[in-house]
Amino acid sequence: MRYDTPSLTRWNSRAYDSSFGYVSAKGAPLVELLDPQPGERVLDLGCGTGVLTAEIASRGARVLGIDGSPAMIEKALAQFPGIDFIVGDGHDFTVVEGYDAVFSNAALHWMSRDPERVIENVREALLPGGRFVAEMGGAGNCAELTAAMSTAWREYGLPEPGLPWYFPSPAEYAGRLEKHGFVVRLLEYFDRPTPLDECPGGAADWVRMFAANLLEGLPPDLVDPLLRRVNELAAPALRRETGWMADYVRLRFAAVRR
Q1: What is the pLDDT of residues 133-166, one digit of tens each?
Q2: The Cα angle at residue 11 between residues 89 and 69, in degrees rounded to 5
Q3: What domain range includes position 15?
């Protein structure tokens, strides 16, 4: 196997698990859709700290977890020593033996450099008839959050932030899957407003976690007022009496390699 480490946001694996555990928790229905069987070979692409990888393995499947963050993989190996995890890039990986399924939760939208190349790699990793089961951000995901960021950056005289995500429409992604040799069996596109229960700092905490690379290189004394302005701009749409919400839109699919 060959895996190359991508240049991605430097994840804080402890914060990811504690403050953003919903990323794994919301993935439980996706594991049910995958329906892993004993003895199947499953590749978890963008496995994070390995929580869902371990759930798949508990069903008797033989699983390999891949993630672009060394910190995530380090934590996954520590938490689940009986499972194989490797640092790798969805844009550039090969496998020696074919897999029965490729699974991915909340990760494909980070692989934005060349989404078609990612699909090609998944296809090559699968045996004929193998399934690709995934959930990612869809068109309109985080629209209020990113609009607040763009406005705040502009007000502070900063260049438009280069957002690191790829949020496709259902038709766009289905077309790409079909183009690269998949038959789409299921595709769901739905709003999923998600409470940011562990984000006392509101949208600012979300930016620090998921778009920290956009803060790098900014004058240190600018970051806090900039993020306060993000909160002010996002609050009318995303702040409730019960706390902050993230305006998530999800794209969930199951496809089969021809």
Answers
A1: 999 999 999 999 999 999 999 999 999 999 999 9
A2: 25
A3: 2-142+165-194+248-257
